[in-house]
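Cross-posted from the bioinformatics board.
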Amino acid sequence: MKNQMTDTTSGPGTVVGVNVALSGTLKDQNDIVVYGMVDGEVISEKSVTVGQTAQVKGPVHGQSITISGTIRGAIDASEKLEILETGKVYGSITTKDLVIHSGAVLVGKVIMGAEEELPAEEVATEEKPENSETESVEAAKEETTLAPDEE
Amino acid sequence: MYYYILEAPSARSVRQNYQKLRDILTQLGIAGEVVSASPARTSTELAEMGIGKGYSTIVAVGGDHHVNEVATAVIGRAVLGIIPVNASPLVTDIVGATDIRDAAEALKFRRLSLQSTVLVEPETIIFLDSVIQTSRLAKISLILDNRVRAHAYFNRLTINRFLELRLESLHVTERRKVLGMFNVGGQPIRSESYFHARNVRIVTDPSLPLTVADLPIAQSPIQLRLMPDSLKVITKRGTVLE
């Protein structure tokens, strides 16, 4: 990424208004809400909301991410990701909990799951030394490609 | 001993308040040297004189712009006392006192708190909310921490002492006729953005004044730097010991 914003203050969070075009890495310990255009990475330790008028070109990281605008880039939501009916995502998704509303567009890989969600027998095999690593990783990751031709 | 700087009185009621204040200060036993700002002797010059005379506490008596000017002069060199007269709720919130007597009593107990400020380079301070405002939409560029760039059209930018920026704009989409009959457009679009950083550069087109209580303190382009806990202020609920 070309720019980076170091965030040493907790602050009240960041809101990028509908008529604002921003470039660089937007990083905040609190919530980030985007209604305008962001060309760069968006990183929050809490929630990220991408409004209907928003266009984000770059990766998005957050605990909980809600999308009703457009994102072109990878999304990593450590807790939950919700794509609302007007939301458009062109990029891979990594999350534990995914909600996609009817009408939303998703073009990219979806990687879901965590170790604690593995079936009991697979957790048991994980303890065996031979070929355990490969199997557990494959079991934990459910890779799905949706609508690959849409973009 | 305190050095009191009165804002130049704008009305008779303010003069009456000043007389009342002198009586309260005498009653509380915290009377000191009292000087009055005027076009010939600005608040900043008087504060410099007070510090030169060896006063360690300079008290600003007046409204927002006056308090901000005195704060600019005393930062890092003396303690700021505040007696709000015709000041905004922000000032009374900081002091924790709602009237003259309350504020004077706070001065007597001399509890200090450390307040953050913003340096407008080269030497102006934002202690109270500052505003860049224009009735017509103007271009603005913000560079946050020398790394993030934001571009927008705006009507109003508010900056507080924590270097939190609130950027507002309101514009109406152009009205046009469809098939020569129906008017479409004319919808108001409101935009609000909030940013915070430690260093901010602000460029506007055209160049616009940065004001406190409608009085200019700087002119864009400006470079701002957050100075955490940089100003010692006497407040009602202060916690810092000298």
